[in-house]
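If your schedule permits, I should be very grateful for your opinion on a structural question. Kindly check, if you would, that the fold set down in the tokens agrees with what the sequence suggests. Thank you for your consideration; the sequence and its tokens are set out here:
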Amino acid sequence: MSAFHQLVLPGLGGGELSLAEFGDRITLVVNVASQCGLTPQYAGLEQLHQQYHGRGFSVLGIPCNQFAGQEPGSDDEIRTFCTLNYGVSFPLSGKLEVNGPQRHPLYRLLAGEGADFPGDITWNFEKFLVAMDGRVLARFSPRTTPDDPALIQAIESALA
């Protein structure tokens, strides 16, 4: 099992979210926030999740409050916001630190020293496309929208 799939995240609302559950999927890992100018990307992320889920794809949302305090809510508030406003059905973890000394091991793997796409996460809605074998295939900036042709092409290629 890959290092990615060995990770266990806090679940949104308690419990654990094992990334082993994503071993048979191409996964788009996105740090998300409810009060960001980019928050409307939730709609496009849900559309991607719905469009490609049957082909072995999943979005994984990672709430993070490190960027201007734009995800201040509790787990219940995050879930309610995402469900009511965007119909989010893709998995969400509990809040994680994506940068700094408390950076979660997931983000050390995705963007830390020795990663294929190293460097601090620049803002909410930065995206990492992860292969079924746990390799990081691509990294996309927060401003890359879910319907961006480059992102769609990367997903299609990974699923091919």
